[in-house]
């Protein structure tokens, strides 16, 4: 594709968008000028309650703004918008494994869902003005993941976003799946940022090779932070001095808190010097000891909601 060519939009997606006034199509170069890569089509949502952007690459929400409110999500100015790339920002879905593959570190980090093409299957605006977008991914066993599964992700976008995930084992053998909704929150100040609701809980510190420590007070950010908290049944709150967001859910007991820090961030192509200051990730899902066992033929569901607190 030449540098300026528009990314191709599948006919089925164009037809679905054409049916709904609250949907339109654009592309990453328009919304993220100066970003890297070949470009990706973007689905734009505009309802009385919110505006949002998403891409079928990874089934990823990239932007969410309640009407009259502020942008919730961060996208790196160095994000690589190319088909099949993992996009640095928004809410990527890490699935069917979180972090390195449990037994084979040649496989991609954070699983396969975030770099695959999802299908937008339906769109609907309900009576309360909430827009529901259903995305699906059907995986046939391959060398990267040896089990068949289907994942359905419904984005319910009102004054707040809710993400519903249903994972179905469509094959004949049981498997383990770990996953997270890896939200990049746009923040006002990394110095002021704190994550509350984890005081006294144990966490695996990935910066310290996975050793376990006990959280004391809120999580703050002074250098690289990469922590996994298991079995957290209550909401956690992110406060950046200007905004407070409550991240709650059902069936997503793991909480991951991550900021790359100045030193490591400057060496990552799609972050770059100083850009780590723009985000904090507070992720919810099921990983480490919370990993799902999914018997053949069975399904499990979870959802996460982000509310202004
Ligand atoms: O660079 P990525 O593969 O997108 O991963 C970004 C980050 O995701 C999670 O938050 C992990 O806990 C981190 O260890 C990881 O660095």
TrEMBL record:
It comes from the Bacteria. Pfam families: Aldose_epim (PF01263). One of its GO terms (biological process) is carbohydrate metabolic process. GO terms for molecular function: carbohydrate binding; glucose-6-phosphate 1-epimerase activity. Its EC number is 5.1.3.15. The active site is at residues 182, 283. InterPro entries: Aldose_1/G6P_1-epimerase, G6P_1-epimerase, Gal_mutarotase_sf_dom, GH-type_carb-bd. It catalyses: alpha-D-glucose 6-phosphate = beta-D-glucose 6-phosphate. Keywords: Isomerase. Belongs to the glucose-6-phosphate 1-epimerase family. This is Putative glucose-6-phosphate 1-epimerase. It comes from Gilvimarinus xylanilyticus.
């Amino acid at each position: 594709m030449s540098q300026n060519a528009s990314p191709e939009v599948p006919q089925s997606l164009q037809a679905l968008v054409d049916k709904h006034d609250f949907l339109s199509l654009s592309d990453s170069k328009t919304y993220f000028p100066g970003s890297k890569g070949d470009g990706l089509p973007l689905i734009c949502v505009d309802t009385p309650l919110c505006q949002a952007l998403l891409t079928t690459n990874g089934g990823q929400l990239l932007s969410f703004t309640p009407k009259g409110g502020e942008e919730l999500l961060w996208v790196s100015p160095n994000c690589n918008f190319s088909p099949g790339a993992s996009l640095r920002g928004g809410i990527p879905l890490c699935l069917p494994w979180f972090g390195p593959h449990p037994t084979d570190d040649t496989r991609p980090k954070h699983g396969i869902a975030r770099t695959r093409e999802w299908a937008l299957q339906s769109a609907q605006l309900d009576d309360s003005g909430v827009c529901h977008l259903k995305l699906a991914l059907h995986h046939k066993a391959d060398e990267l993941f040896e089990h068949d599964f289907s994942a359905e992700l419904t984005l319910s976008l009102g004054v707040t976003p809710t993400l519903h995930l249903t994972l179905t084992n469509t094959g004949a053998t049981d498997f383990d799946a770990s996953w997270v909704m890896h939200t990049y929150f746009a923040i006002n100040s990394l110095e002021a940022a704190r994550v509350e609701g984890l005081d006294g809980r144990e966490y695996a510190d990935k910066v310290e090779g996975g050793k376990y420590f006990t959280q004391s007070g809120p999580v703050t950010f002074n250098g690289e932070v990469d922590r996994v908290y298991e079995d957290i049944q209550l909401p956690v709150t992110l406060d950046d001095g200007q905004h407070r967001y409550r991240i709650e859910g059902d069936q997503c007991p793991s909480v991951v808190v991550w900021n790359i820090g100045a030193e490591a961030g400057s060496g990552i192509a799609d972050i770059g010097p100083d850009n780590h200051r723009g985000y904090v990730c507070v992720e919810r899902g099921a990983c480490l000891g919370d990993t799902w066992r999914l018997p053949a033929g069975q399904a499990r569901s979870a959802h996460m909601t982000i509310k202004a607190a």
